[in-house]
Amino acid sequence: MPQLIAILPGDGIGPEVTAEARRVLETLGLDLRFEEAPVGGAAYDATGHPLPPATLDLARRADAVLFGAVGDSRYDGLARALRPEQAILGLRKELGLFANLRPAKLFAGLEDASALRPEIAARIDLVIVRELTGDVYFGLKSRGTTAEGLREGRDLMRYDEAEVARIARVGFETARTRGGRLCSVDKANVLETSQLWRDVVIEVSVEYPDVALTHMYVDNAAMQMVRDPGQFDVIVTGNLFGDILSDQASMCAGSIGMLPSAALDGSGKGLYEPIHGSAPDIAGQGLANPAAAILSAAMLLRHSLGMAEPADRIEAAVAAAIVGGARTRDLGGTLSTRAMADAILTQL
Ligand code: NAD
Ligand code: IPM
Ligand code: MN
């Protein structure tokens, strides 16, 4: 029985980059089948909801999900529950995808695409382990009016100890498979959620005496990320801090078009997506870098399907294409989305 991959292309450049990732998967000759469904603004236009029941059902049935991106300013006026972004948040919550792995490494040859000096950029090879189903994203939200009659907005930042402990374990386990160093990023000098976070991470660390644990405040971490990203091995952090730090890490590694991600439930089920969004400014022009989506497909094979060998082959093909000079515009080149994927396919 072939394994089922759900493809949810979404909006903007989402369909452009997932089409190339699917092409790469199809080229490998694996025992896979694919089903596509609309998500985000595309699903809202078609059905009136950004995450229609049939799309959620497909995601549940599938062995793994390959996701593009959602969102467009056209939907800014909608009630929050109907905005495209609710589709990805809903999928993460409904599928219990609490652990987000966001690897950032500089592919040889991209030193000059990085926002950092080449010798500093060359050292970047880290993984951000981002908690994905809690924090200020999923706490109580409200809009109202203060006693003085001022408009007010609230988003509750909240974690419980079980949520922190399970993502901490993912952080320690990830560090174990790499350089053995885990940096927990928080704001414990100001936030109660962060003090709980730090307390629990320290408690869990007793189970991992072989991993060297450090702690860093998020503002310092943002500074250290551009001062010397090579100092980090694995970073474990909350949902909001991880979102921001991963976009920052991407420009250290050359482009946001290079960073893949895996969202995992701890049992093997996963959703895989580039860390970037729908990039409305370049959508429909064939300018998007498909590497992040293609590398997400590699993570899908490795983490959900147990196919490490073809995953390695995809990553090696991306590396070889880049060494060979393949560059989309974000990397300082002129290749189209399709031509960049062709350059990667040639190396497969
Ligand atoms: P974005 O990541 O879409 O784009 C930021 C910048 O990076 C843009 O200039 C864009 O052109 C560029 N960029 C992004 N991906 C690229 C690629 N593959 N190749 C080349 N250049 C690329 O972030 P944004 O502009 O803040 O958000 C646009 C929309 O995407 C919003 O609606 C936002 O909510 C949504 N979004 C969705 C996801 C997701 O679906 N997981 C993630 C982030 C943002
Ligand atoms: C991401 C995105 C999402 C997030 C948005 C679109 C909800 O920025 O996947 O990084 O904040 O998690
Ligand atoms: Mn983001």
Automatic annotation (TrEMBL):
Domain Isopropylmalate dehydrogenase-like: 4-344
Entry keyword Magnesium: yes
Feature type site, description Important for catalysis: 137, 187
GO MF entry, a single one: 3-isopropylmalate dehydrogenase activity
Protein species of origin: Sphingomonas qomolangmaensis
Annotated residues for binding of Mg(2+): 219, 243, 247
Annotated catalysed reactions: (2R,3S)-3-isopropylmalate + NAD(+) = 4-methyl-2-oxopentanoate + CO2 + NADH
Cofactor binding mode and count: Binds 1 Mg(2+) or Mn(2+) ion per subunit.
Protein name (record): 3-isopropylmalate dehydrogenase
Chief place of localization: cytoplasm
Entry's EC annotation: 1.1.1.85
Keywords: Amino-acid biosynthesis, Branched-chain amino acid biosynthesis, Cytoplasm, Leucine biosynthesis, Magnesium, Manganese, Metal-binding, NAD, Oxidoreductase
Binding residues annotated for substrate, in chain numbering: 92, 102, 130, 219
PROSITE patterns referenced in this protein's UniProt entry, alphabetically: IDH_IMDH
One Pfam family named in its UniProt record: Iso_dh
Pathway: Amino-acid biosynthesis; L-leucine biosynthesis; L-leucine from 3-methyl-2-oxobutanoate: step 3/4
Family: Belongs to the isocitrate and isopropylmalate dehydrogenases family. LeuB type 1 subfamily.
Taxonomy of the source species: Bacteria, Pseudomonadati, Pseudomonadota, Alphaproteobacteria, Sphingomonadales
Quaternary structure annotation from Swiss-Prot or TrEMBL: Homodimer.
Function: Catalyzes the oxidation of 3-carboxy-2-hydroxy-4-methylpentanoate (3-isopropylmalate) to 3-carboxy-4-methyl-2-oxopentanoate. The product decarboxylates to 4-methyl-2 oxopentanoate.
Compartments (UniProt record): Cytoplasm
Cofactor(s) in the UniProt record: Mn(2+); Mg(2+)
Uppermost EC category: oxidoreductase
SUPFAM superfamilies: Isocitrate/Isopropylmalate dehydrogenase-like (SSF53659)
Residues where NAD(+) binds: 277-289
